[in-house]
Design goal:
The complex is a heterodimer of chains A (about 170) and B (about 270).
Chain A lengths: L2 H14 L4 E8 L11 E7 L5 E9 L16 H6 L12 E3 L4 E6 L13 E10 L5 E10 L5 E6 L6 E7 L1
Chain B lengths: L1 H15 L9 E6 L3 E2 L4 E10 L8 E2 L5 E4 L5 E2 L2 E5 L4 E7 L3 E18 L2 E7 L16 E15 L14 E5 L12 E8 L2 E2 L4 E6 L11 E4 L5 E5 L4 E16 L2 E15 L3
Parallel strand pairs in B: 2-11, 11-19
Antiparallel strand pairs in B: 1-3, 3-4, 3-8, 5-6, 5-9, 7-8, 9-10, 9-11, 12-13, 13-14, 13-17, 15-16, 15-18, 18-19
The chains are: A mainly beta (about 170), B mainly beta (about 270).
């Protein structure tokens, strides 16, 4: 009796722990505007029909007193509608301060997104940026996850976002 | 003096909501924002009876008629209220997450008749009607009016508590979509109830704001189905005005033919995708 659970344990462990790396790179472009504020950015994984599977990152003005920065979270409006409004901010491992102009790579921790727990299928990474006194842009990066093959999806934004890359390296 | 002034403005407002739907001005309450995040958000409202959406250009809406209900069903204080000549403004604090409703609900009695070519009107309590000595006036008709003008705003996740019908008059109910969760390019369906039961076959008029900058106002008219449900497609983001008015014969009042008017108006925001 005792041997059975022992034998199955390594199998469970193998399917539960993802040893690879998930990376998301978001470029914030330099904009020649009179009044510039760093954009609020949200990135998440959703199914093609738009159901949010995982939030990957939310960058907003976390440093303001009395959580005043949360006032503008609704401007990342698709994210706000899909999941933001039902979250209690901040979200550990997901939310963080706004980022300056440049390319930013986030290593997504397993506790935030575990590819091993993601059923095989078609997905997309959505990146949405909204800038105070500025514009808004939303990009979609479709990818296929079969449980083991590496993922490398990228796209180029036009206005509020630059190059976006999402990789899963098992 | 102050009450006198209030009263006269109130009557002007009532008159503005006059009988003929074609000539009727539009009563609206519009929020500064309808979707909010963060804690203790504030929303400022403008309310007026005007010819253009959403520009005040005729009569201020009666401030005293405004009631605000929070997501828990409790009354919320109207703050910084000011009833101007052509526009009323006030604030509310959204101290809790959920959907809040601001409404102006009024029941009134009115009469209309003709003097020559001119349509004359009177508004007042039903008990005062006899004192007006209007009997015998040409085309005299009296009306029982029940109007509800409202709008909803949401902090955090939308809730539906405030959208449960009170059971009086025409009211919008959540069918599939929440009025604070509307996006361009999507279809939205709502329910309409009359005295708490589905209002079938009622015409609903939807007009996008900023009609001042359009030659064609572009009214969309949809009709509720047998379950009182109607569907609207929003091709463009913006602020919209919605109205449904029902008129029916209601027998006689003190020997004068009586009609019943029930009206519902709301405003809402449609966001870009």
């Amino acid at each position: 009796m005792k041997r059975f659970p022992l034998a199955i344990l390594p199998l469970l462990a193998a399917s539960a722990a993802f040893a690879g790396e998930v990376k998301l790179t978001i470029e914030i472009p330099r904009l020649e505007v009179a009044e510039y504020h760093r954009p609020y950015v949200a990135a998440w994984i959703q199914t093609p029909d738009g159901n949010v599977t995982k939030n990957l990152a939310v960058w907003y003005a976390t440093e303001m007193k009395d959580a005043e920065g949360e006032k503008w979270l609704k401007d990342i409006r698709q994210w706000w509608r899909k999941s933001g409004r039902s979250l209690k901010m901040p979200v550990d491992g997901v939310s963080g301060p706004t980022k300056p102009v440049g390319s930013h790579t986030v290593s997504v921790p397993v506790k935030v997104f575990d590819p091993a727990a993601l059923p095989a299928g078609d997905y997309e990474v959505v990146v949405e940026a909204a800038r105070e006194v500025g514009g808004r842009e939303m990009l979609r990066l479709p990818f296929k996850w079969d449980g083991h093959a590496a993922v490398d999806a990228s796209t180029q934004g036009k206005t509020e976002l630059g190059k976006i890359q999402f990789t899963i390296t098992p | 003096m102050k009450t006198m002034l209030k009263k006269s403005l109130g009557i002007a407002a009532l008159l503005a909501l006059s009988a003929n739907p074609v000539l009727a001005h539009r009563f609206w309450i519009i929020p500064s924002t309808s979707v909010l995040s963060g804690e203790n958000a504030w929303v400022s409202f403008d309310a007026a009876i005007s010819n253009n959406l959403f520009f005040a250009n005729h009569v201020a809406a009666p401030l005293q008629s405004m009631t605000v209900t929070g997501p828990d069903g409790k009354a919320v204080e109207v703050q910084n209220g000011k009833e101007g000549k052509i526009r009323t403004t006030f604030d509310i604090e959204l101290a809790k997450p959920g959907t809040y409703k601001v409404a102006s609900v009024r029941s009134m009695f009115s009469a209309q008749w003709k003097e020559g070519e001119e349509v004359k009107r009177w508004r007042g309590p039903a008990a005062e009607f006899a004192k007006q000595d209007l009997k015998g006036k040409p085309e005299l008709k009296v009306f029982e009016n029940h109007t509800r003008v409202e709008t909803v705003v949401t902090s955090g996740e939308p809730s539906s508590e405030v959208l449960k019908p009170t059971g009086k008059g025409l009211e919008l109910v959540v069918e599939k979509n929440h009025p604070n969760d509307l996006f361009a390019g999507e279809k939205a369906s709502f329910g309409l109830v009359l005295n708490g039961t589905p209002a079938a076959n009622v015409k609903v008029t939807v007009v996008k704001g900023d009609d001042r900058y359009r030659n064609e106002p572009g009214e969309t008219i949809v009709t509720t189905n047998d379950k009182g449900v109607f569907e609207v497609s929003f091709s463009e983001p913006g602020r919209y005005w919605l109205n449904a008015t029902l008129e029916s014969e209601a027998g006689e009042f003190e020997g004068v033919p009586m009609g019943r008017r029930v009206a519902y108006t709301t405003t809402f925001e449609v966001l870009p995708e």
